[in-house]
Amino acid sequence: MAYDLLLNDRLDRFIRDRHRGETAVLVANGPSLNETDFDLIRGRLTFGLNKIYLGFEKFRFYPSYYVAVNELVLRQAAGEIKGLNCVKFLSNRANDLFCNDALTYVLNTTHPQDRFSETPLYGLHEGWTVTYVALQLAYYMGFARVVIVGLDHRFDFDGQPNETTLLKGTDQNHFSPAYFANQAWDNPDLANSEESFRIARQRFEAVGRHIFDATIGGSCDVFEKRPLSNCFH
Predict the structure, then answer these.
(1) H/E/C letters for each residue in 69-121?
(2) DSSP code at position 165
(3) For labelling, which of 26, 112, 119, 209 has a CA lying 20 to 30 Å from the CA of 20?
(4) Nearest alpha carbon to residue 68 among 137, 8, 18
(5) For the whole model, what pTM was predicted?
(6) Domain range spanning residue 220?
(7) Residue 130 CB: number of other CB atoms within 10 A?
(8) In tens digits, what is the pLDDT along the chain, a chain of 233 residues?
């Protein structure tokens, strides 16, 4: 109990409404990142997801915040995640590897109380995509606008949604061919992800906030689409 109270106090003091009224860029991991103009993103408040560190050098980009909840990602990238010099929000699915510290918040994503949580104090629903977790965190932090890039929403995979499979060879589903190359990954669930996105859009718009999709050629039709160059006026 004392541990939970300490974590909750840190979240309330340092995270809740920290960016009220501001704009965040959520950098997802689709191949379209290779066509994205990062000159428009650098210097802005950003969320990086999963194995975004594979693009730091190429894109000359470093996130303000980092989010990862998938257990395979947490375990495959544990060393890189621990080395990130930004605030990190991680699932409790790998509690043997990560603990709370000055830059790290280990949050409950295994037994959330709500489908869309306005506060991580009571858990965050994973929504079949880490992007949904980042949107809940952005809401909690008070962002009025979230601009998403790299949400290609297209995957080539074998097997059923949510099934863990081995990706043989290079990865064509993400911005780096090394992303899940010759590694296990959990097949995406696009239908449930879209349901999550619709919930996020409704919750943002209900309080006058907005989510824009600036992905180049993205296949997700849930959010209002805008060119990245028109998202910051």
Answers:
(1) CCHHHHHHCHHHHHCCCCEEEEEHHHCCCCCCECCEEEECCCCCCCCCCCCHH
(2) E
(3) 112
(4) 137
(5) 0.96
(6) 2-230
(7) 23
(8) 344 667 888 898 889 999 999 999 999 999 999 999 999 999 999 999 999 999 999 999 999 999 999 999 999 999 999 999 999 999 999 999 999 999 999 999 999 999 999 999 889 999 999 999 999 999 999 999 999 999 999 999 999 999 999 999 999 999 999 999 999 999 999 999 999 999 999 999 999 999 999 999 999 999 999 999 999 87
What's the CA gap between 152 and 70, in Å, rounded?
19
Task: Specify whether the CB–CB gap between 116 and 140 falls below 8 A.
Answer: no
- Give the integer Cα–Cα distance in Å for 178 and 175: 9
CATH assignment at residue 72? 3.90.1480
The secondary structure of the chain in percent helix, strand, coil, rounded to multiples of 5, reads 35, 20, 50
End-to-end CA distance of the chain: 45
Number of domains making up the chain = 1
Total length of the chain: 233
Residues with Cβ < 8 Å from 215, sequence gap 6 or more? 28, 30, 32, 148, 149, 150, 151, 152, 153, 225
